[in-house]
Amino acid sequence: MVITHYGGQCFKVTFGDLTLVFDPIGKGATLPAVHFGADIVFVSRNHPDMNGVAEVRGGSKELFVIDGPGEYERSGVTVQGFLSKSHYGLPKEKDEAVNTVYLVELEGMTLLHAGALSDPELSKEARESIESIDVLFIPIGGDGVLDVAAAAKLATALAPRIIIPMHWNGMGLPQSLEQFLKERGNKHDTVDKLTLKKKDTIEKDGAIIVVTPCV
Length: 215
What we know:
Blueprint: E1 2-5, E2 11-15, E3 18-22, E4 40-42, E5 64-66, E6 70-74, E7 77-86, E8 97-106, E9 109-113, H1 124-129, E10 135-139, H2 148-158, E11 162-166, H3 176-183, E12 189-191, E13 194-195, H4 198-201, E14 207-211
Helix pairs in contact: 2-3
């Protein structure tokens, strides 16, 4: 499995011939739109910063779109989407929006992508379904998503093997990454791309890995 960061909350996960993308950046977004083909796309929040489905629909691949709560299965990938709330990018007439937290199982590993989550208390359904997490993608930037303190609290509660902070590059409050790292004791690794196998996660216990955006 190879994990690549495209800024914001957008991550591409590839294994074999299959490509997954979480929260692709669309046209008119805060960050430059992405342009690559994918097999499965996850949209946590219906906002241009996270809903660029058209930007990852390309070539001969038939794109499978997951954009809300429910249970899904595709190409050996099993998914549970849990309803949650976001305060990110709201128009003036709204005080909250739907966010979907995705629990994804593939290659014997479990990934949790929290999307544009603003509430550190997950739903009862999510808490009962989540047993162990190999990789947690968690927003830390505030400004409508979890801030540093709330993100650290949720990360501690979920006890993942690996934590990948997101929503700190090109969006979120200044110095969010530095503050999050300090909150967690400053111990971390920084990589351009993260290559993982199940055996790589077994001895990890809340390890923070910063994946540098490739754009």
